Amino acid sequence: MNKHAKRTVLVAGTCLSVMVAGFPGTLSASTGTMIAAQQTKSISGTIVDSNGIPVIGANVLVKGTTNGTITDIDGNFTLTVPAGAILQISFIGYNSQEVTVGEQTSFNVVLKEDTETLEEVVVVGYGVQKKKLVTGATVEVKGDDVAKRNTISALGALQNQSPGVNIQATSGKPGDGYKISIRGAGTNSSTNPLYIIDGVAGGDINALNPADIERIDVLKDAASCAIYGARAANGVIMVTTKQGKAGKVTVTYDANVGWQNVYKKPDLLNAKEYMAVQDQVAYNNGGNPYDWSKYIDADLLADYQSGANEGTNWLDQIINDNAITTSHALNISGGSELSKFSTGFGYQYQDGVIGNIAKSDYRRFTFRLNSEHIIYKTDDRDVIKFGQNLYYQHAQTQGIQIGNQYSNAISTMLRANPCVPVYNANGDYFMYDDLKNSGTDGWFAYNSYTSNPVAEIVNTQSGNNKSKNFNLNAVAYFEVQPIKNLTYRSQAYYKQYSSLWKGYTGEYKINDQGNAADQSTLSENMTIGWNWGVTNTLNYKFDLPKEHHFDVLVGTEYSREGNNMAETLEAIAKGNVFTDFSHAYFDNFTGRTGLATVGGYPVDDHSILSYFGRVNYDYKERYMFTAIMRGDGSSNFADGHRWGYFPSFSAGWVISNEQFMQSTTNWLDFLKLRASWGQNGNENIGAFRYLATYSFGDLGQYPFGSDKNSATQGGYPTRLSNNDLTWETSEQTNIGVDTRFLGGKLSFTFDWYSKKTKDLLINVPVSSINGFTTKAANAGSIENKGIEISLGWNDSVGDDFTYGANFNLSHNKNEVIEVNNGSGYVEGGNDNLSQNTGFMARMKEGHPIGYFYGYKTDGVMQNMDDVQAYLNQNCGGNVANSLQGTSIKPGDLKFVDVNGDGVINSDDKTDLGNPHPDITMGLNLNAAYKGFDLSISAYGAFGQQVARSYRKFTDGQYENYTTEVYDYWHGEGTSDRYPLLTPGNAGPNWQNISDIYVEDADYVRLQNLTIGYDVKRVWKTCPLQQLRVYFTAQNLFTITGYKGMDPENGMALNSNEPWVTGVDVGNYPQPRTYMFGVNVKF
């Protein structure tokens, strides 16, 4: 669809919704004439609750008309009404009132709390339920709380809001997402929960504009999630976008603009320091200091040695100071009792704090249109109604490459030589050839660390890359209620997504020995996918005598998804085809000399058929019981294993409703015990994983011809089949307590859970007669146990000051219970810290998943006596039993003989740390006083470790260092932590995984501070309903002992090993942001 067509569809859709829903403040000609003939007058008033606190947004409507308004931030309203009018005043959570106008012109109305609706409603699977009656573990986050965080992603705003929900940014790069786990990592595949967006499973929460969200409900235990069966093992996050409300058309506009900066940088060596350290390395290896005049011009060398010129700080070269970020959101909503709508438009832009020389930014356009229309209604129900939800997103990202240790621009900058300038005397990029006497000495011969990394980013795909993503989500539903409390609902949806990545490397030359190209290369990857489904439910609510209440739901669901196309293209041509990356398109690629790569894969089709049912029962809202059963049939599995069944049972007891608790009513408002048990599944193992696969290529060469010397490419098997593959199944038990005290001012929630996930998919050994050594099988299990605590206080002082504080804390213990592959463990993270360092993480029985695995050290050998003492104590006095062997010397690490057998070898490797926090906490504070509002949020994580790998790269031969190099051993008594520096740092000290790489990464971060003021407080004649200005600061400070740029680390270096996390390879840090904004309502 071209841009003009998209624009036409969006405009037409908006206009259609508005025409169907109608504008409540607009009257027809005949109606207008009739009212004009009547006598009218202007009235005003104030709406407050029973505590005298203004009710903001209450509906004030003239009965029998669509003439109405809503109250402002002070609870005030004004309205022109006809004589004898009756006002209908309503607000969610309060009983509606009718007030006859009569002769009065001023009204003070007190709304009474509705004990039915005030007991909050929680969104559950395929419906809603009173929070008082919920027997599972759920948490609600209001949309206003999400929007006030002013984050690009809703997950960023959800961080710290709910105990047991661990959200970590994968990086601070614009457009990057978050890693999320609910109640611990229960799988060795993705831990992301199932997202339900407006009733549709499988949505992308990162595609939503936070300003479009009405509420988020997190379902954490098996009883809450069981209704979603095979896809709910990792928990469920339900997102409800903003819906239309009956009343006058309301327009809101939220906008902000700000600037971002890197607030913590590694302290790199300057040129003088670098040369001194390199001389020390040469000395440590028995050599002489370098004659730097051989490589650097005399004037420049003199400036370096005097400190007049500190050389090149390559990281500073790509840091973008005061990077701009801005967001705009427009929402229009309104309607009548029979038809209502809500539509939203959004634009967000974020410039990267790292990129500078290469454009690094993210921009997103969003459009949303929701409407609902009642075709026929009676006094007690909506008999027939229908509605739709439409959401569209277009996002574009461009920026430097980050990710693993081999293609990471930040890591490259950290290790680049500071003696190499960015530009030469001619103003061109400095090349290796510009070095004095280049190549005359083996030390300064060309290598990647005497290159110019800035020039490489500017000229190659490392900086010249762009990705575009499109998401379209359309939902339509139809609901019939033939008799009261019997509701049939049918819903259909269609989703489509596409992504395009493009990278361009033009003709460039950085040196004469490497990193040179006399041709242009254009690469492109494209994917198009779709998903559609139909859900039908029948819900019946009924009561039996003596206050027995039932709510019964049955339903069926079918969904299907797949990729229409996925392709990879690469073209090569002589010369510099494009002078500007923005013109790099295949259609413009002239003079092509070769089509280096054409690849892709066919349609990937997957479907699920489901049947489900739920029974909710309560007696006098005192005793509750819920039972759920869902059956899912998935095409991901072979015949005989396609169907899985997922039951759950839960119960609750509202103790505070018992007669024997009546004496506590003056201080105890509510006390409920909850207990649940259930099973959920995870069928996300990939389509057709049970089938064998074949490929064609060089590995399939077969000899042909009479001499059998001609080889022809052919087919060969790449994976063994396993028809017995089945679901991962999570079984969870939960016990919880919900309480409220002192008139609802104080609230407390506690949950204990035990969750065990079995049938994890891992590779197990098979006989080599098959041509393979392993195949995939269900052969692992993981257990998570923990507690969650939430504590809240909300109160007011007088009529003007309100305040609140909410604190949450969770503790989780993760343990692998079974790895049934013969060895009892799976290894991952090969060579993540550096080449030849081997595997650094394990999934092993009795340990947390992904724990760091390697050698423990006990300091550094200070002298030869210390060396001999170490050998006697750990190696039986024999150097051959040490890792260092005959080269052992002062300055080497003391590797610990963990098993005590007198030999240091791989049997001594052990647990070095856990990338998952033991404890997480969140704190949210808020206050309001006479138009001012303040909110503060903080987040903390404790007990986790990070393996920092960019330090190893900056400790290699020719590489630069951070000032941590001064903590390395350089003589007796200088260090008992880090070993002696040697050229390349080859050998056991550095090329074995050990605890010198692993650091504690506890931290507490002040995430958000917002101060706002409603200008209407001083501008009394302001025609707007709201005019709020605000200032927000994000990531104001982080308290941590971690020496890297950012202790928050949710990135997995290898998408095939998502369970290997907590590795810092020079991660893109989260920026510190300051922004100013405005909220307008009219």
Automatic annotation (TrEMBL):
Please state where this protein is localized: Cell outer membrane
Say if the entry is tagged with keyword ATP-binding.
no
Among InterPro entries, the record links this protein to:
Beta-barrel_TonB_sf (IPR036942), CarboxyPept-like_regulatory (IPR008969), Plug_dom (IPR012910), Plug_dom_sf (IPR037066), TonB-dep_OMP_SusC/RagA (IPR023996), TonB-dep_OMP_SusC/RagA_CS (IPR023997), TonB-dep_rcpt-like (IPR039426)
TonB-dependent receptor plug domain location is: 134-236
Its signal peptide is: 1-29
Query: What UniProt keywords are attached to this protein's entry?
Result: Cell outer membrane, Membrane, Signal, Transmembrane, Transmembrane beta strand, Transport
In which family does this protein belong, per the annotation? Belongs to the TonB-dependent receptor family.
Q: Report the NCBIfam families cross-referenced here.
A: OMP_RagA_SusC, SusC_RagA_signa
Protein name in the entry: TonB-linked outer membrane protein, SusC/RagA family
- Species of origin reads Phocaeicola coprocola DSM 17136
